[in-house]
Backbone:
């Protein structure tokens, strides 16, 4: 087993992001009504309470787009050592996490917003390494 790939750190970051976003999408699709109920309850006292379904749909779109670029990026980085698509994946990861951060702040879920920091730092580090 050869662990001397020149982009090993970047690949590990991409795999972490892939697991994170794919599981998130699967959770949302497998229990769509539960997701809507939970998010609706979270935002019941905010100005976005009437827009929950389209906002969640947009979040799922961002997560799927991120996962797509990460999957293709992993392949291209591993096989061809081409970084562009992987960079797109990490960039979309940052955008997606920022979108979630705005939601957490609107909901005044400060511990939830804080927990996103780890994902954001890892995504930014991936952008840095791939840029």
Residues:
């Amino acid at each position: 087993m050869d662990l001397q790939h020149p982009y090993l750190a970047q690949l590990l970051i991409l795999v972490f992001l892939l697991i994170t976003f794919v599981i998130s999408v699967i959770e949302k699709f497998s229990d769509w009504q539960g997701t809507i109920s939970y998010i609706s309850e979270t935002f019941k006292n905010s100005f976005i309470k009437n827009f929950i379904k389209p906002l969640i749909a947009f979040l799922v779109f961002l997560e799927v787009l991120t996962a797509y670029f990460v999957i293709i990026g992993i392949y291209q980085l591993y096989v061809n050592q081409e970084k562009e698509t992987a960079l797109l994946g990490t960039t979309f990861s940052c955008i997606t996490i920022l979108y979630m951060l705005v939601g957490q702040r609107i909901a005044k879920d400060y511990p939830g917003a804080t927990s996103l920091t780890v994902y954001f730092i890892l995504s930014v580090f991936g952008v840095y390494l791939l840029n």
User: Anything to note?
Assistant: The mean pLDDT is 95. The chain is about 80% helix and 0% strand. Residues 87 and 131 are 7 Å apart (CA to CA). The chain has one domain: 8-130.
